[in-house]
Amino acid sequence: MTEAAGTAERTNPKLALSVLDHASIVEGSNPGEALRDARELAQNLERWGYTRFWLSEHHNMRAIASAATSVSLGFIAEGTSTIRVGSGGVMLPNHSPLVIAEQFGTLESLYPGRIDLGLGRAPGTDPRTMRAMRRDNSASSTFPQDVQELRSLFEPASPGQPVRAVPGEGLRVPLWILGSSLFGAQLAAHLGLPYAFASHFAPSALYDALAAYREDFTPSEQAAKPYAMAGINVVMADTDAEAKNLFTSQQQAFLGIMRNARGLLAPPVESSAMDTMWRPGEKQQTEAMLRYSFVGSPETVKPKIEQFVADTGVDELMISSMIYDKKARFRSYELLADLFDLEAPAGS
């Protein structure tokens, strides 16, 4: 399915906006400060009307403080009251399904009706760190079976069941399948689960994956019809020039990934200065990875996001904004909420 043919009728007439955060550790900061900033962001997102706040699982990355994802999510959930809190995602092959069921069963027990469990099969790190985590290279091959096992542990226990998740059993924590290829789309369709595509950094298979998910979807107790989410990067400011400058922090981060020189999130530079940093081919590769990045003033960004939603037919957008300055990051999310007339929950 080509991108030009990607226009699809959305299954949900009301577009939801959510946030994928990395608890980014900026230069001059530390993990504790990054996690406290993430909680403050979630509190503001709740007030502005965002649907959910997810944290990512990555390991051995100096700029990301959410490696212990379930622990971090407990800190976020404790500081909020209505916004959904979840993983974007837990890399299930790094863990046993039982341990994840217990961890997220605990979260659901403490914060009922607010916990999401997004699942991915990538390691979230490099091969050396995989070995340090005692992860087997073949672990991802059993991902479908592990998802099924995890799902069963959230069901009410059967008489005489020898292994039970406590807390966890009977709680039916909502599961999501995350992916950047047809594999995850097909699995989500087969299991009747909502699907989130990582188009904020791996956009190439977006339209084919959404088509496969919708065409093959089998209804389940959790979802009667397909529900698709797409990740995008959004950096907004009062002017296009300011937003483009803010976006250079994310560009520098991806440049570091390509060079295997990951560091803390760097402060922005003038957007024109990036042309002095690229080596041959790096700018094109970074632009390809960050294809679905919407950068600019509200007047610039709104029609582009609206076109993306019309083309993909997604029910929800998961927003990532790797902005160095906390005030500028919060301002970007507030502008986006105003742009799409999000409504704060009653009593907030």
From TrEMBL:
Gene3D superfamilies: Luciferase-like domain
Coiled-coil regions, chain positions: none
A Pfam family of this chain: Bac_luciferase
Record-linked InterPro entries: Bact_Lucif_Oxidored, CmoO-like, Luciferase-like_dom, Luciferase-like_sf
SUPFAM superfamilies noted in UniProt: Bacterial luciferase-like
Luciferase-like domain location: 29-315
MF terms in GO: oxidoreductase activity, acting on paired donors, with incorporation or reduction of molecular oxygen
Gene Ontology CC annotations of this record: cytosol
NCBIfam families: oxido_grp_1
Family statement drawn from the similarity comment of this UniProt entry: To bacterial alkanal monooxygenase alpha and beta chains.
Protein name (database record): Luciferase family oxidoreductase group 1
